Amino acid sequence: GHLSNFGETITLSDSNAQLVDTLTYTGSPSDNQLNLVISEIMYHPTTPDAEYLELTNISDTLTLDLANVTFTGGISFTFPSGSTLAPGARTLVILNQSVFESIHGGGHPISGIFSSGRLSNEGEQIKLEDADGSTIRQFTYETALPWPTPPAGGNYSLVLLNPASNPDHSLPHNWRPSISENGTPGTSSPVTTFIGNADEDLDSDGLSALVEYALGTADNVFNPSPLTISNGTLSFPRNLAADDVEIIVETSTDLITWNANTSLTDQVHNNNGTLTEHWVLPDESKLFARIQIDLIP
Q1: Cβ-based neighbour number of residue 149 at 10 Å
Q2: Does 153 have pLDDT greater than 70?
Q3: Do the Cβ atoms of 140 and 147 come closer than 8 Å?
Q4: DSSP of 37-59
C-alpha cells in the first residue's frame, strides 16, 4: 500500500490488537488525484476488441499533466511524455484502434492502446497511478448487483454519474449503464436536467412531473400504473438520463413508519433510454410499498 496523499489516520496496535498510538496527518493530493476521473468503462462490447476506458479532467481551469500516469491494474498503459488533458476534456485508452474506429468512427481523443491486458467481463480491479507512483484511482468494478448489470451479451458501458462531483468510484450507486449501445467514448453521456414545476400533473394521471421524469414516462400521456407488484416484487422503469434524481424504495406495514428494507434483484435494459428495476419486498401479511424521488442538489 501507500500512505495516502489525501491524508489519513495511521494506527499502531500491539500483538493483542490493543491500541498503542494513532497519528492523523493532513495530505497534499496532486492535481491529477483531485481532478482526474475514470468516467466510462467499456468492458464487455459485442465486438471483443472494442474495449476502452475514458478519463475526464473535471477541473474548470487546470490542464493536467498526464506524462507517465500509468494504469497498473486491469490493463497496462503509460501516458507518453508530453501528454496533457485540458480543463473539461476527455481522453481514451483503447484495446484496438481499427476495431474501435469501425464502430465509433474516427476523430476520437485517443491517447493510446493498451500495452497489455484487457478488461474482464467478470469484473476486476482498476488502478491508475500518478507519475510518482501514488494512487489516483483504485477500485473494483463488478458485474453483479448492486453494480449495474449489462444485458446478456453486454455492449453497454459503465458510466460514472455526475463526474464533476468527483464521486467515489468504488461505490456501485455512482455508476449506471450507458443509455445506448456501444457507449459514448470521448463525449459526455446524454443526460438531462429536470426543469419546471415538480408537482405539476399535466395529464391528470396522479403522477407528478418529477415522478414521470424520473421514471422515463411523459407527463402529457395518461399512464397511471408504471409501478407494478407481482409475487412480492415491485417493478418500475428508471430514466437512465436522469442523473439528477435519486429513487428510494420504501415499505410499511402501517402507513406510518417507512423503511428502506427492500433489495434490488434485477435490472433489465429496455433499449429505449430506460431500464426496469425489480425489487423484492419483505414477506409480510400486509405491506405497503412506495418510491421516494428526490432531486439531487
Answers
A1: 18
A2: no
A3: no
A4: EEEEEE-S-SSGGG-EEEEEE--
